[in-house]
Amino acid sequence: MDKNISLVGLGKLGLCLSACLAEKGFNVVGVDIEESVVNKVNQGVAPWFEPQLQEFLAKHGGKTLHATAHHQEAIEKSNITFVLVATPSNHDGSFSNRFIESALKSLSEALQKNNKKHHLFIISSTVMPGSIEASFIPIIEKYSGRKLNKGFSICYDPDFVALGQIIKGFLQPELIVIGESDSEAGAKVEAIHNQICENKPVISWVSITNAELAKVCLNAYITTKISFANSLANLCEKIPNADVDSITKAIGVDRRISPYYFQGGLAFGGTCFPRDTHAYLNTSAEYGVQADIIQAVEQVNQYQKQHLAEMVLHELAKIENKTIGILGLAFTVNTAVVVQSPAINLIKELLKHNLHIIAYDPYAIISAKAILGSAIEYVDTPESCLEKAGLAVVTLRDMKLKQSIDNFPFSANPLTIIDCWRIMSPIKLPKTVRYVPLGSYYEK
């Protein structure tokens, strides 16, 4: 097996994949246009927080993981290049391929000047179905002067990882989908996964187009499941003695349903779910196919954002202390990412009412400040939120956060806690605390 691999795009996913490859014995050349990222990687310093990333970079950064700003090095020092750059959403919900196309142009121009017999390109970015055959292959052929499956091959190897557990997702994936231009290229991709995987995932070999579709539709399906659970949670809030967790846990053991992503709560957010849902709708519209289910998912998700804001304002009207504490700013745990975060959306809605808001998050304060600026107050501990707030909203499923609240010495001052994921133990809360669980019946 060829132990030399290059990877273009040292963003949140690409850097983690590069670190995993280095950890599992590959010599990796990482390419990125951001000079600060290149320097930090070579210094063995993680540019942002992601579990295990700092550990891997400290071991391999500047050694078996070498970062550079030059695409030519990727071609010169490897015969296999992953491309995992951003594909930002266009206004119509489709993905823009401009960064992939730019990278492939630079890589292909370098390949044209190289006398190697063959190079394998592995696209891992999320793309619109049809992109590789309609756009990427022609670009490589034009600028490299080579023909597909002669001087180069191409595969689509989409990631199925989640922020906050990216490295675990690469090392222990549940599934791998390989879209291949030829079987030899697909076998090389499989060999790489066999080298880095610590488990035995199911591997599916499909056409390139089917791999592109699989990536987009998987997240669209997950958001459908999330939205059903959220719709059920809203129903449970209205029916005496109803509790969404009891129901989803009971029926989630049925293998036709499964318990994963089946927990009523906040709207889904992040960098993948919202945009992949929009991309699915865009693709369906392009081919004249109805996507009523996914349109309903969008409606449920928008309602869920509105519902939380209305709940907070309803509870706030009952109390004297109008200061609101937000416990969690990121869209999920163990990440600094606040893209499409339900907490950020809530804060924006509350600011329309000129309310004083205090916020805590273990990793996302800086990211939140870039959006909210000085419109709210930021604190370093969850305790600081609870001390000042008349109403606190727990937005993260974070067990460390739960422990902090459980151990908090509540004063005699009344406090309302809206628990969006029902992580708290109400029985441990004093009578001065009004507990409002999203997704369960409570006295209005």
Q: How would you classify the helix and strand content by structural class?
A: alpha/beta
Helix content: 40-55%
- Write the CATH architecture name of the largest domain: 3-Layer(aba) Sandwich
- CATH-assigned fold name of the largest domain: Rossmann fold
Strands of the biggest beta sheet: in what spatial order?
3-2-1-4-5-6-7-8
Characterization of the model:
- With 444 residues, the protein is α/β, with parallel strands linked by helices.
- The protein folds into 3 domains: 4-206, Rossmann fold, CATH 3.40.50.720; 217-291, N-(1-d-carboxylethyl)-l-norvaline Dehydrogenase, domain 2 (Orthogonal Bundle); 298-437, NAD(P)-binding Rossmann-like Domain (Rossmann fold), CATH 3.40.50.720.
- It has 16 helices and 14 strands.
- It has helices at 14-23, 35-43, 53-60, 71-77, 98-112, 131-144, 166-171, 183-196, 208-236, 244-252, 273-286, 292-316, 342-351, 365-372, 382-388, 399-406, and strands spanning 4-8, 27-31, 65-68, 80-83, 119-123, 152-156, 175-180, 202-206, 324-327, 357-360, 377-378, 391-394, 415-419, 433-437.
- Strand 1, helix 1 (14-23) and strand 2 form a beta-alpha-beta unit.
- Helix 5 runs parallel beside helix 6 (131-144).
- It is elongated.
- The chain starts with a strand and ends in a 7-residue tail after the last strand.
